[in-house]
Design brief:
Blueprint: E1 2-6, E2 12-16, E3 21-22, H1 29-46, E4 51-57, H2 63-74, E5 78-84, H3 91-96, H4 105-118, E6 123-126, E7 129-132, E8 147-152, H5 166-173, E9 176-184, H6 189-197, E10 200-206, E11 213-219
Parallel strand pairs: 4-5, 4-8, 5-7, 8-9
Antiparallel strand pairs: 1-2, 2-3, 6-7, 9-11, 10-11
Helix pairs in contact: 1-2, 5-6
Bound molecules: S-adenosylmethionine.
């Protein structure tokens, strides 16, 4: 059961009763998504590029996706977005988030009208955007494709430790292109060591409100 909850910046998130955790920071869902994934991830990697491929771990409400779609649309960047999600939310819950307020109606309508089909195959949402939400766990996910950026947005290590093991981090990192970027809201010594062991250079960046630091790591060439 997921319960709609207000966060400190006025945006909503969901509380997942089974896991015992929110989908986003209680200090601000919208702020966290923009800070960690859009600013530190997408804007950083897309500088000077006209095409970007994103692999997200945990599609959830689609907040990271719609903000990415809006940014790429405004900047004329072609976006190829894949997001692994074993427990897709219903379209009714997604419609209740209020996230339609954070993007243009054109972006929101393209998302909502293609969401359910995206769970079974890649969909063209606009000439600049493809979306696919493989209905699987990260551990079972496989593809020949390599991505420019990974948004690692799993539930926290306290609530889903298996999503932060060295093996699963290495598995996720194997889908990045050389020079590609891994971003996540979390930073621990264990995570830094796991990412370094995969040949990444790590950066500690200021975290979103409520977190001192976050991790950005760049895969060696
Ligand atoms: C912190 S929430 C992600 C929030 C999401 N990015 C958003 O903007 O709403 C974690 C997500 O990971 C998904 N998840 C749970 N187990 C997973 C697994 N084994 N592999 C991939 N995703 C998983 C959950 O269903 C949930 O949607």
């Amino acid at each position: 059961m997921n319960i709609l909850t207000l966060t400190a910046d006025g945006s909503n998130t969901l509380y997942n009763e089974t896991i015992g955790e929110h989908y986003h920071s209680k200090h601000g869902a919208l702020q966290e998504s923009k800070h960690v994934f859009i600013d530190a991830g997408l804007k950083f990697i897309s500088e000077g590029k006209t095409e970007i491929s994103v692999l997200e771990v945990g599609f959830g409400t689609g907040l990271n996706f719609i903000l990415s779609f809006e940014y790429c649309n405004e900047n004329n960047i072609k976006l190829d977005y894949t997001s692994v999600e074993p427990f897709p939310l219903t379209i009714d819950i997604i419609n209740q988030t209020g996230y339609s307020n954070y993007v243009s109606s054109q972006i929101w309508t393209a998302f909502i009208s293609n969401y359910e089909r995206s769970l079974t195959s890649s969909q063209t949402l606009s000439p600049l955007c493809e979306l696919e939400i493989p209905h699987t766990t990260l551990a079972e996910f496989g593809t020949e494709k390599k991505f420019d950026v990974i948004y690692y947005d799993a539930f926290s290590v306290q609530h889903q430790p298996e999503m932060w093991s060295d093996e699963i981090i290495a598995h996720a990192c194997s889908f990045l292109k050389p020079g590609g970027v891994f971003v996540t809201y979390a930073i621990t010594g264990k995570l830094k060591r796991a990412v370094k062991a995969c040949g990444f250079n790590i950066e500690k960046l200021p975290g979103a409100p409520g977190k001192r630091e976050m991790l950005r790591a760049i895969k060696g060439m």
